[in-house]
Amino acid sequence: MQTFDALIIGSGLAGQSAALRLAEHCRVALVSKRRLEDSASGWAQGGIAAVLDSRDSIEAHIEDTLIAGAWLNDRSATRFVVENGRRAIEWLIDQGVPFTQDESGYHLTREGGHSARRVIHVADATGLAVQDTLTRKVRQHPNITILEDHIAIDLITSEKLGLPEQRCLGAYVLDTRNGEVLTLGAGNTLIATGGAGKVYLYTTNPDTSTGDGIAMAWRAGCRVANMEFIQFHPTCLYHPQAKSFLISEAVRGEGGLLRLPDGTRFMLDHDERAELAPRDIVARAIDFEMKKRGLDCVYLDISHKGDDFIRAHFPNIHARCLELGIDITRDPIPVVPAAHYTCGGIVSDLRGRTDVPGLYVAGEASCTGLHGANRLASNSLLECLVFSEAAVSDMLAAPPAPLPTLPSWDDSRVTDADEEVVISHNWDELRRFMWDYVGIVRTNKRLKRAKHRIGLLKREIDEFYANFRVSHDLIELRNLVVTAELIVRCAMQRRESRGLHCSRDYPELAAKPRNTVLKRRRPG
């Protein structure tokens, strides 16, 4: 058993920013499934939304967020995040993040759903620049124990151990390099594991986005909410060699136009805001046009802005497309929608606390109420920063009770898996039917089919988990099937079309917004 003052599971922006803040006061363990650099945060291109211009306002940013979220947002959480936006950006600047500047100061871009230029960025690779800056500091900090190539199996709670007071005590973590399971005890634990994009066949997310934190918290007894709201990014590059390469929202924000193969624009037929409509509207419009016309993709055209402008604003997108034979200074970019962001997650309050004392959450794994039924572009990294700081402040406010001795992981009754192919087959089946049945547009019939298939898979995976030694792939598959079940259960309960949830059986908007909240009867 290893003990720490704080255990952070996940090494994206939420996890690393929390680690740096905590490490000034206590000993921290930071668990990363792969390298510190391999997180969804590092893939974020567009930037971070915050009110930094005197011509912008807190109220305007709040209003834009509420409109994009189809008025399901928690207003207190929305105001809390927006009002703390400038301070979050200033903290990143203090860490050394090299945000793009122009003659008037920091350059701000505009993205879909925003009424003003308020997205601060580092060219078109903001997440990578932020991640690299923080990673260097995390690696150098003496109070941070970094556990790379480690994946959390499950949270350890007092209830699971038969102790009277419900509390999170740490986690069991698999060292994937040698197969050893570590027992990590901690006074406080922060889930910062990101979303669950890999539950779908096509996604802009890295392979690490498998819903681990959401599934673990659910098994520990936390409420989970609004999992039906999966944001499909409208513009993922359509190319066989780049299935997860995102074409930033900022391309449309800077004048990019969506066109059919014959060059005709179509967004004005769907929304008066055209290419600057929120993501859910643009994704559904593309999905509609592709299905109506039997298209494999549509095209995003920024070529009219000129060579110098494109190379200056989108150097990474330009370079990657050029590698694939697409010169975006002359050619339109083939794009399709793909699963991008999990707007729901573990229910938390304004201090990042979950239903289990000692367990916190920040970032995409959480459901803070900020995003409502659809995330406004570039609010995600902002949420990571604001709520990781809030969670750290709460952790440091009062020291936790002493930890009991935690039992070691027991694998005495399991054997090595005899057929690993079962895992890969189940993984592929799950992602395919989630794409087909629980995608951008849903029906009751499709959801019932998905629920039935999930039930069969879940029983098979649970049996496999009970009888064989854990592996990286088995842990992820177990978490993905739980996450898929939560998405379907939430979708079946929502009898309306709102934000990212579009139902052919319930096409109207309900009169009163409501959250879809799921609660386990008993942790397990």
What would you call the shape? globular
Structural class by secondary-structure content: alpha/beta
Strand content: 15-25%
The CA-CA distance between the termini, in Å, is 22 Å
Mean pLDDT, to the nearest integer, reads 93
Tally of domains: 3
How many whole angstroms does the radius of gyration measure? 22 Å
CATH topology of the largest domain: FAD/NAD(P)-binding domain
The major pleated sheet works out as:
7 strands, mixed
Number of strands: 22
Low-confidence stretches: none
**What is the CATH homology-level superfamily of the largest domain?**
FAD/NAD(P)-binding domain
Annotated CATH architecture of the largest domain:
3-Layer(bba) Sandwich
Number of helices: 14
Helix fraction by DSSP (H/I, runs of at least 4): 25-40%
CATH class of the largest domain: Alpha Beta
Task: Give the arrangement of secondary structure elements.
Elements: E1 2-9, H1 13-22, E2 28-31, E3 48-49, H2 58-68, H3 75-83, H4 85-95, E4 101-102, E5 105-106, E6 108-109, E7 119-120, H5 126-140, E8 144-147, E9 150-157, E10 168-175, E11 180-191, H6 212-220, E12 224-225, E13 230-237, H7 249-253, E14 257-259, H8 279-293, E15 298-301, H9 307-313, H10 315-323, E16 333-342, E17 345-347, E18 359-361, E19 366-367, H11 380-397, H12 421-437, E20 441-442, H13 444-467, H14 472-493, E21 502-503, E22 517-518
Parallel strand pairs: 1-2, 1-11, 2-8, 11-18, 17-19, 20-21
Antiparallel strand pairs: 3-7, 4-5, 6-7, 9-10, 10-11, 12-17, 12-22, 13-16, 14-15, 15-16
Helix pairs in contact: 1-5, 1-11, 2-3, 6-14, 12-13, 12-14, 13-14
